[in-house]
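Supplementary notes for students who missed Thursday's class. We covered one full example, reproduced here. Read the sequence, then the structure, then the short commentary at the end.
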Amino acid sequence: MYAAALTPNLRAVTPELARRMGLILGALAAVVARRFLREPALAGLIVTLWHRLNRVARRFEQAVLRPRPQRVRAKRVVVADAPVVAPRPRVPGGRMWLVKVLGWEAVGHGSQLSALLAEPEMRAVLEAVPAVGRILRPVCRMLGIEVPGAIAVVPVVRVRKPRAPRQGAAGAERRRTGATWFRGPLFKRW
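Structure (token representation):
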């Protein structure tokens, strides 16, 4: 599906873009491991965040080098006697949370990533392969990088249809007689 969208020129530069993305995210994962070990409150997030950053790099490489059509996933079968697994620690959410924790080191990797995303070849790849946007958006959010227009989520504006007024027998009777439940001594102006 997306393989035809990449021109031969883009196919020639995508291995280099994938390599550079992998280097940036790998270095960021190493900084996370080194700095989170110093803070006991964040030590539980090391493995989770390490896996997430490396998985983003692998998924980016897969999406741009070996694009394939999206597949429909089968429903999961729930096994009754499955062992209970302890929940993994949740990675904090919010904009720039990693920059707030790591400081200048995260800003440095974020600036490298934003420079890579600003290159014309990368912008062309982002427009040609929309799946890359879903891959990179969480990393951009945790580093506080402005998301390029090609991968930004466009908010869906829904227009509500006006509801037709109900015409019930009790409502029609009240309107005809002028009787309402709130008329009384406190509401004499109506």
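Commentary. Residues 3-69+92-143 form one domain. The CA atoms of residues 35 and 102 lie 7 Å apart. If anything here is unclear, bring it to office hours.
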